[in-house]
Design goal:
This protein is an alpha+beta fold. Helix content is 23%, strand content 38%. It is built from three helices and six strands, in the order βααβββββα. Strands 1, 2, 3, 4, 5 and 6 form a six-stranded antiparallel sheet that branches. Strand 5 and strand 6 (121-122) form a beta hairpin. The longest helix is centred in the first third of the chain and has 18 residues, at 26-43. 27% of the residues are buried.
């Protein structure tokens, strides 16, 4: 199986992430993981402008999150994102969310589909999209 470059996204837990218990609300983890995916592809040259211009993006087909440690206000976190596998139109991604101490606070697995926004259907990612996902730099822009 091919090995892909991982990506790290660092951010701060802010007030908007908290619930009434004073820790990160479960739904906010999905927001944080999405931010990490956007940062990954944007840093590899395929941001929102490319999605709009080319009309090709990804859609979430499935997600699984495992919560392991509490995260609190103003805690600095790192989200490590890695493509596990690409099978035709389907992309399997894993996230590790690390707290300030470097401990895994949450893990997530996402199944994404490469999506043609004009045709409204799943498609096989082209070389440009594969570069954004894998960081291997083999496709032309």
């Amino acid at each position: 199986m091919e090995e892909y470059k991982s990506h790290e996204y660092r951010t701060l837990i802010r007030e908007r992430h908290l619930d009434t218990f004073g820790h990160v609300n479960n739904a906010q983890y999905l927001v944080l993981f999405e931010e990490a995916r956007w940062e990954m592809i944007t840093s590899r040259g395929y941001g929102i402008e490319q999605v709009h211009a080319r009309q090709i993006g990804t859609v979430v087909l499935e997600c699984k999150v495992r919560f392991m440690r509490e995260l609190k206000l103003r805690e600095e976190i790192t989200i490590r994102t890695r493509i596990r596998e690409i099978r035709k139109k389907i992309i399997f991604i894993s996230h590790e969310l690390l707290n300030e101490s470097g401990e895994i606070a949450a893990e997530a697995e996402f199944t994404l589909g490469c999506f043609d926004l004009r045709e409204r259907k799943l498609i096989t990612p082209d070389a440009i999209w594969l570069d954004a996902l894998t960081g291997n730099g083999s496709g032309a822009r």
